[in-house]
Amino acid sequence: MDDRYPVSLGQKSFASELDPRGVVLAYARVSTEVGGQADGVSIENQIDKCLLVCAGKPVKIIAYDKGISGSIGRDGRPALNYLLENAKHGNILVCHSLSRLTRTAGDGLLYINDLTKRGVGVVVCDDDINTTTPDGYFKMTIMLAVYELERKLTGKRVKEGMAKRKALAGDAWTTNERYGYQWGEPDEKGKKGALVPYEPEHAILRKILAEAIKQPPPTLKALAEMANSIEGNTRKWWPDNIKKLLDAEGIPSKKSARKTGTTGCIPPHEDEHTPPGVATL
Hints:
The chain is of the alpha/beta class. It folds into two domains: 15-152 and 261-280, 3-Layer(aba) Sandwich (Rossmann fold); 171-249, no CATH class. Helices cover 37% and strands 15% of the residues. The chain is built from eight helices and eleven strands. It has helices spanning 43-53, 78-86, 98-101, 105-117, 136-169, 199-212, 220-228, 239-249; strands at 24-30, 37-38, 41-42, 59-66, 92-95, 121-124, 129-130, 181-183, 195-197, 262-264, 278-280. The strands form three sheets. Strands 1, 4, 5, 6, 7, 10 and 11 form a seven-stranded mixed beta sheet that branches. Strands 2-3 form a two-stranded antiparallel sheet. A hairpin with a 4-residue loop joins strand 6 (121-124) and strand 7. Helix 4 (105-117) runs antiparallel to helix 5 and helix 7 crosses helix 8. It is elongated.
């Protein structure tokens, strides 16, 4: 094994189960940019484990996609797409866990079927999957279905939680009325009057705004926790309705910059024939 990649002990090795002539194509992915972590496992640690389980096998390609969701297909993941296009008979595509390769059963089956027809094996370290063995393909299809179900159930729970939070936040966020204000008396034609301060809420609003303009500005989460602790407050505050309140008052809120997917390579041996995020050895 390449001594540039330190590894830990205790990981099962698939080396004895694989074709002795096979070469390794290692793939890693993380969904976030900050820290390069995926469920606590960095890009570097994912690659380490891929090389460890195939110890002694020559490594041809090491690639990763960073800041890209596993639900995105191969066209949106340049490193994975390169691996799938360039995998040849006898190669072994190795990844840390099945969720690093894909989070949708449909895409996963397309990848595995295509690779299997071309004589390319797939090894998934944490899920103990090796498609070059008799039961490997069967286990792969079952795990893909399980991960897809888990992802959909998680999405359902998130939507239910957001609906509950919206309900707890009160009706003011689904109407034109702003927190801390009420409509004045209607005019002669019956049209609503101007918004005027509603003192029970406006007193709480002033405290929130006074905290929001401090330097450095507090996070939305910190503001929500502070608002919930104000004596006399009857509303449940969350970061999202705090942001709406600040937006309505014209006060910028502290939030993370939008993150976009990037790629890199380990080690940095890219050339003009490979996309970013791919290193050929």
